[in-house]
Amino acid sequence: MTQQAEPLRSGWRPPLARRTWNSGVWAHFAWAALLPGLILLGWQLYTAYGEVNPILLPSPAAIAEALGTLTASGELAVQLGVSLGRAALGTLYGCAAALALGTLVGLSRLAAKLLDPSMQLLRLTPSLAIAPLIILWFGFGETSKIVIIATGAFFPLYLATIQSLRGVDGRLTEVARVLQFGRAQQLSRLLLPGAMPGLLSGLRLAMAYGWLSLVVAELLGAQAGIGYLMSHAQTNGHPAIIFVGVLVFAVMGKLIDLLVATVEKRVLRWRDSYAG
Amino acid sequence: MSAALLEIENLNKSFRTDSKSVQALRGIELDVREGEFVTVIGPSGCGKSTLLRIIAGLERGETGTVKLSGEPIRGPGIDKGFIFQEPRLFPWLTVEKNIAADLSLRKPEVRSKVDELIRLVKLEGFAKAYPRELSGGMAQRVAIARALLRKPKILLLDEPFGALDAFTRAHMQEVLLDIWKHNGTTMILVTHDIDEAVFLGSRIMILKPRPGEIRGQIAVELSYPRKKASTAFQEYRYRVLREFERIDELAWGESGAGI
To answer: So which residues are the signal peptide here (chain B) (predicted)?
Structure first.
């Protein structure tokens, strides 16, 4: 304990202790799975012994069987690939536009006065209301779907970009003035990292909204993708496949969110208060 | 005697709040020679921070001139190092990157200077730590190293140890004196702590509030390192206190109300 006696280190605090991961994660998972598990069990019993039309409510076993068949035939992978590709492309365009416009509005007062009011008006228009217009302009092809997804992903990140750039600590901006930061350093050492927490939570929202918009886009008419699989099953009377689609949308949505959350944790390691 | 590094002549500054105008500084005259350690002491609200911010170029005086090496000050810059009351480190950068700030550690000359400064401010072993892992005193030492890397002509310190506990503060004062002896950097330190002003300053400027005016200066003719418990030290303390009592009596006499 000689280090304690050293005057220099008297005020030093050790880094925050790392959480014990494994047991925590499994316990968390067990608790989270408890309720869905019970519902699933009740559902299976109800469909097996109750009087219920399997066209309206297929049993979990039937859904699992449909999932198995679709997976084995490779159909699910193909449709999922199409959906993921679409979502990725649309979200990418939406996020790129959001970062560019958000940076402009966040850093320039003129741009804020000129652009932001119109953006706010567009933001409050429901995407389902614009979707028919987009289809009218871009047709039923791939373009309209990408545009619908991009619009969905755009606004959360646009707003987050503006707010987080404006929220950069003014006291640090003063330090940058005293140290005579150049333009490039101001962006890379002050504004970007200062805005990063807000940008990442904006990105997380943007990806969630992009994924939600994918459902809208595909259910409005598509020749491929999970949404297509679902509407096709609807017209051909395969309710189990619709459930498989819902399941895939939910699980993929959660996985995407988990991915961004993991990146967030990595990038924001420097933050004291960050707790997931 | 060498020519003054910093020359302030008849500096005035007032702030407008709503409809009122409050004079913060009036007729400030101050010359600081190269290598001096000037402490400015006064109660809160006496305009001492404003004075320092004007020297730093972060604010502008209304009338009067402020010159550094004969050149009027036009804005903030690395020749005028500034230590704020809070360390103001970039929380996303490690200690060494905070010191380098806009400079690249990949340049060998930056690398070696940063390493040297980390030793000077006694932070060996913490180069890769993040600010959240540092105590207040350590963080303030990083801020000092960050300013020193730019080889400022003058280092301005705005109540730099005000937020620290008494023991850490005493330690930081010693670190600062070491740096001053080692580098010879000209320093102006603003404080409301009489002990600190006497312990550090080769000259103490006494500022009275409302409006901020220099009401006297005391040259401290004690060799460093100074002993706070010594009689000579205590005598300087009394002289500073007596100045403030005189100011208080004047204030009572002028307006009939003290602070």
So the answer is: none
Dist CA B109 CA B101 (whole Å): 14
* Residue A148, CB-side half-sphere exposure with 13 Å CA sphere: 33
What are A109-122's pLDDT values in tens digits?
898 898 888 888 88
In angstroms, the Cα distances linking A26 to A10, A41, A207, A257 are 39, 21, 26, 19
pLDDT in tens, B227-241: 888 888 899 899 988
If 0-12 CB within 10 Å is exposed, 13-18 middle and 19+ buried, where does residue B67 land?
middle
Of B90, B133, B97, residue with least CA distance to A193: B90
| B chain contacts of residue A272, beta-carbon cutoff 8 Å | 91, 132
Residues 6+ apart with CB under 8 A from B82: A178, B52, B56, B58, B76, B147, B155, B156, B157, B158
Which residues have CB under 8 Å from B85's CB, separation 6+? B158, B159, B160, B162, B163
Model confidence pLDDT, tens digit, residues B124-137 = 889 888 998 888 88
Q: Round to whole Å and give the CA distance between A220 and A242.
A: 15
Out of B92, B137, B171, name the one closest to residue A270 (CB): B92
ipTM higher than the 0.95 cut: no
Helix (H) or strand (E) holding B30: strand B20-33
Question: Of the candidates A7, A172, A177, which has its C-beta nearest B90's C-beta?
Answer: A172
Number of A/B CB contacts below 8 angstroms equals: 80
Q: DSSP per residue over A131-144, as a string?
A: HHHHHHHH-SSHHH
Sorted by where each begins, the domain ranges of chain A are 61-268
CA–centroid distance for A74 within its chain: 26
In degrees rounded to 5, what are phi and psi of residue B174?
-65, -40
Residue B92: closest CA among chain A residues belongs to which residue?
A: A270
pTM of the model: 0.76
- pLDDT digits 0-9 by tens, A129-168: 788 888 888 888 889 899 999 999 999 999 999 999 999 9
Interface of chain B against chain A, CB under 8 Å? Answer: 56, 58, 75-78, 80-82, 84, 86, 88, 90-93, 101-102, 122-123, 129-138, 146, 150, 167-168, 171
Nearest CA to A209 out of A80, A86, A87 is that of A87
Tell me the fold of A61-268: MetI-like fold (1.10.3720)
Query: Which residue, among A275, A185, A229, has the nearest Cα to A70 in the 3D structure?
Result: A229
CA distance B150 to B23: 34
pLDDT digits (tens, 9 = 90+) for B47-89: 888 899 999 989 888 888 888 888 888 889 889 999 999 999 9
From CA B152, how far away is CA B76, in angstroms rounded? 12
List helix spans (H) across A50-108. 60-73, 75-107
